[in-house]
Amino acid sequence: MYLPLNKTPDSPEERKELIGDILKQQEELFAQSIGYIQRLMIQYLIERGYTLDNIELNRGYEVVVSEKERFITSVDILIRLQEKVLYAIKCTPASIESWERFMLAFCRVVEPYQIPFAMVTDGRQGRLINILTGEVKETMDIPKKEDLFASSLKFMPYPSEKLPKEKRILYAFDAIKCCPTCNI
């Protein structure tokens, strides 16, 4: 990453451009680290018996908050078996605890049923969330594929009267992760 040190901008426009360049470089490094964590998780899932057909990357979902408000949200990895999403995985290089609430809202809103499990991971540590009970465990363990087939998972919709609140929470997280250089 090249940063011009001890450079005094000649104008406000140049200052804005220098700041924009720095932010873009930071975003690129952040995206590269997420890609690395994704690759680690994909390798781990394959070792647990999942195939590439079971794994979906960077899936976007349109969420309608109101007639005038809609947005696209996504998650890094989905595990799908028998046409149902069982796990949603968020890869982040820092502050995995802060993404727990995002994952709860995401898993409650994006499918017609609640995605049963979520994980937030930095590739070394993870937090596994049971969406139906709200229980959070500090672990990187995802069940083997054959164990998931044997379990009796429930695919229940989230109560419709609570959906608007979850959509707003998801919308707020989406605004936070919006590119800071978009307006530069």
TrEMBL record:
Highest rank taxon of the organism: Bacteria
Type I restriction enzyme R protein N-terminal domain location: 40-143
Protein name: Type I restriction enzyme R protein N-terminal domain-containing protein
Organism: Thermodesulfovibrio aggregans
